[in-house]
Amino acid sequence: MSYVIQFVFAVIVFLVSTFSAWYEGSELRDTQWEWKYSAIFSKWKHGTVTNVSEISGFDHFIYAAKFKPLFPILMTISLLYILVILATWLLRNHTNKLSLFFMILGLTLFVASSLTFRSPTVGLVWFTWLFLLTGISSSMVALKLRMKFTSNNQEVY
């Protein structure tokens, strides 16, 4: 029951923060000089962005993460929390697989922190630290679960 309450709360926070980040990032449409740097998805789709109608909704999140990072950070934390709750619930009897999940999550977060490293905007610097700290935490949980799994298997023999 406690997993359900936590999951529902995390989903609500995720939805509210996603909508808020998308709304705050829509300021990109009014900031034409920033299209070159923040309209990444639109550039992939259209080549160069020359019109407001060519800007993708995903670019709103990039702009918000760079310049108004509160809601994108809440969105990221709540998404990570949803993933951890689901993995913990689904893999509760499979310690080895749960350890593998946390290790993959940690490695993914390390890669994400390297992608946002040395960004000139404050928002992406915050994301670098968020990804780095959660990656370290996830890796530590994976190692602790792995040690628990190894010690339990040695006692069986």
From TrEMBL:
**Pfam families noted in UniProt:** DUF4306
Swiss-Prot/TrEMBL keywords = Membrane, Transmembrane, Transmembrane helix
The protein's matches in InterPro entries, at most eight in alphabetical order, are given as: DUF4306 (IPR025440)
Q: What superkingdom heads the lineage?
A: Bacteria
The record lists the membrane-crossing segments as: 70-91, 98-117, 123-143
UniProt protein name: DUF4306 domain-containing protein
